[in-house]
UniProtKB/TrEMBL annotation:
Gene Ontology molecular function: any one: enzyme regulator activity
Gene Ontology biological process terms from the UniProt entry: glucosinolate metabolic process; nitrile biosynthetic process
The protein, known as: Nitrile-specifier protein 5
Cofactors named for this entry: Fe(2+)
Length: 327
């Protein structure tokens, strides 16, 4: 059966945390979430502190770090493999696109600059990231000369970048898409390509081929800058922007609150009943920090902050877990 239900839980934070922001990043290592970057005012990076949220105690702290500390940035991505966090790209206070790759060792609290310049992907922000056991994948985003549609992999063992073949014209350059590693393939879902789009593609590393996927079912409307997670064979899409603001990034577009699940084996979408309208539901938002994670023994999606329909930055945290017994 299709996954048709899921549950949100609002995590009531204790003490002072990073505060409200959007265009930031978060990732989970064990029972702690690490947050970095973001803005309160459009395009103005807030800080470069690394905030740590204990998913059990619900308390925030600031990591005492050493090494090559990344400067403040927005539109940045983070991902974790094992005990190490990887941070790539973003946009600095001068609005310049960045392409440095940093690692952060959560055992030693040390930042390390791994690559910069011509060693990896071109400069970009508002790109997407996903991982498997050995690779961090980077796709798309806003580059120096426009929106990108390239896919790269960083091998965390060999410390090397690999660029994959470019897709055809069907997969236009875009910002804010969903990216997921499922079934040995790298999936690109929706995004903003001059307009909100609703196409789905995957790249097969074994054949080095791109495939456009024809999906059916209860398809989400076109959207971007949503939160997403892969659990098992399903890719979940939560909220996002369905109509951009006339002011671009300076304004708030029209956001949605729904959750949808794509079965990557049947290519069928289903709307997920997730208690919308309740106190434990995040409501409409986009430009959030989000990450896969586990809480209470359940695998799911952590969502922190983002932008609201009133153009106010948010500071709340929610955890979504699908009802996998219906899968």
């Amino acid at each position: 059966m299709a996954i048709t239900q899921g549950n949100w839980v609002k995590l009531n934070q204790k003490g002072a945390g990073p505060g409200a922001r959007s265009s930031h990043a978060i990732t989970v290592v064990g029972e702690k979430a690490y947050a970095f970057g973001g803005e309160f005012k459009p395009r103005v990076p807030v800080d470069n502190s690394l905030y740590v949220f204990d998913l059990n105690e619900l308390t925030w702290s600031i990591a005492e770090v050493t090494g090559d500390i990344p400067p403040p940035r927005v539109g940045v991505t983070m991902a974790a493999i094992g005990q190490t966090i990887y941070v790539f790209g973003g946009r600095d206070a001068t609005h310049a696109e960045l392409n440095e790759l940093y690692s952060f060792d959560t055992c030693t609290n040390k930042w390390t600059l791994l690559s910069a310049g011509d060693a990896g992907p071109a400069h970009r922000s508002y790109h997407s990231v996903t991982t498997d056991d050995q690779h961090m994948y980077i796709f798309g985003g806003c580059g120096v000369a426009g929106r990108l549609n390239d896919l790269w992999a960083f091998d965390v063992v060999g410390k090397t970048w690999a660029k994959f073949p470019l897709p055809g014209d069907n997969l236009k350059g875009r910002g804010g898409p969903g990216l997921a590693a499922v079934g040995g393939k790298i999936w690109v879902v929706y995004g903003f390509a001059g307009m909100e789009v609703d196409d789905v593609h995957f790249f097969d590393p074994d054949t080095e081929k791109w495939v456009q996927v024809e999906t059916t079912g209860e398809k989400p409307t076109p959207r971007s800058v949503f939160s997403s997670v892969a659990v098992g064979k399903h890719i979940f899409v939560c909220g996002g922007e369905v109509d951009p603001s006339d002011l671009g990034h300076l304004g708030a577009g029209r956001f949605t609150h729904e959750v949808y699940a794509l079965d990557t084996e049947t290519n069928v979408w289903n709307r997920v009943e997730d208690g919308s309208g309740g106190g434990d539901h995040p409501g409409p938002r986009g430009w959030c920090a989000f990450s896969s994670g586990r809480r209470g023994g359940k695998e799911g999606l952590l969502v922190y902050g983002g932008n609201s329909p009133s153009n106010d930055r948010l500071d709340d945290i929610y955890f979504f877990s699908p009802c996998l017994d219906q899968a």
